[in-house]
């Protein structure tokens, strides 16, 4: 009866008779087309691995930022529209700095996720009274990885265009996320070490990426309670990717 969505998918604040907001669902589809992002928590810290899509040999690979430092204790990686991600990242940085300035302590990761989702929910047909409101949902998901100093434990949260945030022990977003999540469900355990998590992230990216993995199109970072945000070195990254290639060759028929 409602095969044609026109009339319900034009407005960002209009529910269909089935109770769906199609514009939000379309935004979620944009994330599925984005690059793969994998996050894994351990007792020692958190690992984030991202795919960097280098579409031309003329591109400066350092200009493609898929994982960034928000504060010394938290990093963010995104999948979807890069411009939308940049808006959310700048908002997150301001929130963290304001909290440090006011309370002299790092902002909790869950509080940061809630603040980001509050911004992601601020879309609709805004009038003159609210020109800052987005005219559409954000077409990006953000994976926040950090260390919660209050709990003394790692924290991993995913924020999506519906304004929902959920905490995870391990998670993946973007292209190939279903395959990545299935692998994480089988491999994650409470006893996982930081080094093992880095290897697992490299293996998953090798499995999900369409292009051959290399130091140019893969980035892996760690967040620890003592070292904070720290990208793995180029030598460490090459070793991790070599391990991923060896693991793939070992299971090949």
From TrEMBL:
Any GO BP: ubiquitin-dependent protein catabolic process
Is Cytoplasm one of the keywords UniProt gives this record? yes
- Cite the entry's keywords alphabetically: Cytoplasm, Nucleus, Proteasome
| All copies of domain Proteasome alpha-type subunits, residue ranges | 8-30
Q: Where are the transmembrane segments?
A: none
Q: InterPro entries annotated for this entry?
A: Ntn_hydrolases_N, Proteasome_alpha, Proteasome_alpha-type, Proteasome_asu_N, Proteasome_sua/b
GO CC terms for this protein? cytoplasm; nucleus; proteasome core complex, alpha-subunit complex
- Name its cellular compartments: Cytoplasm; Nucleus
Assembly and partners?
A: The 26S proteasome consists of a 20S proteasome core and two 19S regulatory subunits.
Similarity comment text for this entry: Belongs to the peptidase T1A family.
Q: Which NCBIfam families match?
A: PRK03996.1
Official protein name in the record: Proteasome subunit alpha type
The record lists the lineage as: Eukaryota, Sar, Stramenopiles, Bigyra, Opalozoa
């Amino acid at each position: 009866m409602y095969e044609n969505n026109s009339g319900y998918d034009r407005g960002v604040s209009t529910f269909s008779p089935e109770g769906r907001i199609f514009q939000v669902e379309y935004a979620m589809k944009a994330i599925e087309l984005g690059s793969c992002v994998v996050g894994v928590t351990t007792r020692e810290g958190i690992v984030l691995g991202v795919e960097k899509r280098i579409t031309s040999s003329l591109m400066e690979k350092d200009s493609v930022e898929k994982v960034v430092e928000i504060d010394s204790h938290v990093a963010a990686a995104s999948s979807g529209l890069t411009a939308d991600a940049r808006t959310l990242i700048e908002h997150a940085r301001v929130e963290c700095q304001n909290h440090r300035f006011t309370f002299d302590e790092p902002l909790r990761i869950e509080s940061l996720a809630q603040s980001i989702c509050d911004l992601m929910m601020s879309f609709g047909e805004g009038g003159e009274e609210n020109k800052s409101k987005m005219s559409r949902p954000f077409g990006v998901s953000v994976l926040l990885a950090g260390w919660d100093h209050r709990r003394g434990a790692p924290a991993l949260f995913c924020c999506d265009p519906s304004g929902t945030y959920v905490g995870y022990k391990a998670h993946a977003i973007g292209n190939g996320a279903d395959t990545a999540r299935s692998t994480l469900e089988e491999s994650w355990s409470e006893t996982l070490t930081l080094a093992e998590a880095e290897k697992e992230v490299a293996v998953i990216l090798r499995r999900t990426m369409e292009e051959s993995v290399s130091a140019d199109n893969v980035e892996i970072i760690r967040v620890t309670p003592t070292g904070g945000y720290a990208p793995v070195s180029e030598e460490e990254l090459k070793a991790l990717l070599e391990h991923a290639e060896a693991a793939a060759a070992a299971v090949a028929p």
